């Protein structure tokens, strides 16, 4: 090409994608060794995820690349804001989901891309992400998913160069590393839950928390559902029942509001504990604590000595105690009482596949009862 070496690189199925560039070398016999060496180096860098032009620039002036000026941070921050707005329109993403699954990771991304020596491609950017969350496998996986989706959006909608910023499935898998072993959510017994609730002081503040924990235990509630409960009259018995208006976002779908099914707990003596929470709520006598988000319950429990003691007991059993353990215990209680799977899933507000893969529905000691 005008006396220079013209390089064309094809990739993808059948060479569908192509990049071309003119190398700064004369098309002559005496430049063959130098040309081969340069193309070999470019091949290695492109294989590592660099755009062909970026690779040539770094080969020609590596020192300049290292001390390059930062890219415009406001540009990246603006792209993140547009990405968030797009997710709200297309997926109906809630502020909490953004805060948990996107916000901190994309804030770090903007910081790195606006630094003195910003990453020049997706692989290099993800390497920084991996380093930042290397001791937190699950957070690292969520971070890589968030950054990958953001880059896909920036490529598709705002023209970010796909050659440099596409995160391939192979790169994503490599960066995520080996998945951590899934922890078994603890399933406290009725007696353990009752002891935890009874251990709380009897002041006004803790009385509200007792009501909250009783609701979670009796109805298998998610912590955030405590803010979405109303009492209604049963159409057949005229007794008061509870109804949950919460709609949990699951991808592009939402769960339906639902009637709740109480499953009373039994104390150590085997007697059913009657809390009559629906009746108390119907007459306005079921005060609850202010719950700003799902972490409010966890924050309160982590300050309670009995919860910390139970946490150690569960660790010895190889289990992970968390607020969802109330829900897990409810699931196991429902199965032991002989309720049908469809009824349990309707009462808990999730699908059968979610129930079978995430919730306790049988225990090995149950077999002993039938031997």
User: What is the overall silhouette?
Assistant: elongated
Largest sheet: 3 strands, antiparallel
Strand order of the largest sheet: 3-4-7
The number of distinct helices, counting runs of at least 4 residues, comes to: 18
Considering DSSP H and I runs of 4 or more, what fraction of the residues is helical? Answer: 40-55%
Helix/strand order, N-terminal first? EEHHHHHHHHHHHHEEEEEHHHHHH
Oligomer: single chain
Protein structure class = mainly alpha
Uncertain runs are 63-70, 366-370
Strand percentage lies at: 5-15%
Number of E-type strands? 7
* CATH fold group of the largest domain: hpI Integrase, Chain A
- Average pLDDT rating: 86
Radius of gyration: 29 Å
CATH class of the largest domain: Mainly Alpha
* N-C termini distance: 84 Å
CATH architecture of the largest domain: Orthogonal Bundle
Structure, explained:
- This protein is mainly alpha-helical.
- Helices cover 51% and strands 9% of the residues.
- It folds into three domains: 4-66, no CATH class; 73-176; 190-370, hpI Integrase, Chain A.
- It has helices at 32-47, 52-60, 62-66, 73-90, 95-101, 103-113, 122-132, 137-158, 162-165, 169-176, 190-198, 204-219, 277-282, 295-301, 305-316, 325-336, 341-348, 352-358; strands spanning 4-11, 17-26, 229-233, 240-244, 249-250, 253-254, 258-259.
- The strands form three sheets. A three-stranded antiparallel sheet has the order 3-4-7. Strands 1-2 form a two-stranded antiparallel ribbon.
- A hairpin with a 2-residue loop joins strand 5 (249-250) and strand 6.
- Helix 4 (73-90) runs antiparallel to helix 6 (103-113), helix 7 runs parallel beside helix 10 and helix 11 (190-198) runs antiparallel to helix 12 (204-219).
- The longest helix is centred in the middle third of the chain and has 22 residues, at 137-158.
- The chain is elongated, with a radius of gyration of 29 Å.
- The N and C termini lie far apart (84 Å).
- The relative contact order is 0.08.
């Amino acid at each position: 090409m005008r006396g220079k070496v013209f390089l064309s690189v094809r990739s993808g199925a059948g060479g569908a994608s192509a990049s071309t560039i003119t190398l700064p070398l004369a098309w002559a016999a005496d430049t063959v060794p130098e040309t081969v060496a340069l193309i070999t180096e470019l091949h290695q860098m492109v294989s590592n995820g660099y755009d062909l032009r970026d690779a040539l620039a770094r080969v020609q002036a590596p020192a300049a690349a290292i001390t390059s000026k930062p890219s415009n941070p406001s540009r990246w921050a603006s792209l993140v804001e547009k990405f968030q707005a797009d997710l709200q329109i297309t997926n109906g993403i809630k502020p909490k989901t953004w805060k948990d699954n996107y916000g901190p990771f994309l804030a770090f991304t903007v910081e790195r891309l606006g630094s003195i020596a910003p990453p020049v491609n997706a692989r290099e950017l993800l390497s920084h992400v991996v380093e930042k969350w290397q001791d937190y496998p699950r957070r690292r996986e969520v971070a890589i998913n968030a950054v990958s989706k953001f880059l896909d959006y920036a490529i598709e909608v705002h023209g970010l160069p796909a050659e440099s910023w596409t995160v391939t499935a192979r790169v994503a898998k490599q960066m995520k590393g080996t998945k951590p072993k899934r922890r078994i959510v603890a399933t406290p017994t009725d007696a353990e839950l009752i002891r935890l609730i009874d251990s709380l002081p009897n002041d006004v503040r803790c009385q509200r928390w007792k009501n909250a924990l009783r609701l979670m235990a009796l109805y298998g509630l998610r912590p955030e559902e405590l803010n979405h409960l109303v009492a209604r009259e049963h159409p057949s018995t005229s007794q008061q029942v509870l109804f949950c208006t919460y709609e949990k976002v699951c991808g592009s779908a939402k769960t339906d509001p639902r009637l709740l099914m109480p499953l009373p707990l039994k104390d150590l003596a085997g007697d059913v504990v009657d809390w009559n929470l629906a009746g108390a709520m119907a007459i306005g006598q079921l005060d609850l604590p202010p719950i700003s988000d799902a972490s409010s319950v966890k924050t309160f429990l982590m300050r309670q000595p009995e919860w910390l003691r139970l946490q150690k007991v569960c660790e010895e059993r190889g289990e992970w105690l968390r607020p969802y353990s109330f829900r897990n215990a409810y699931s196991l209680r429902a199965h032991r009482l002989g309720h049908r799977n469809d009824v349990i899933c309707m009462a808990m507000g999730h699908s059968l596949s979610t129930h079978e893969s995430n919730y306790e529905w049988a225990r090995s000691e149950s077999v002993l009862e039938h031997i």
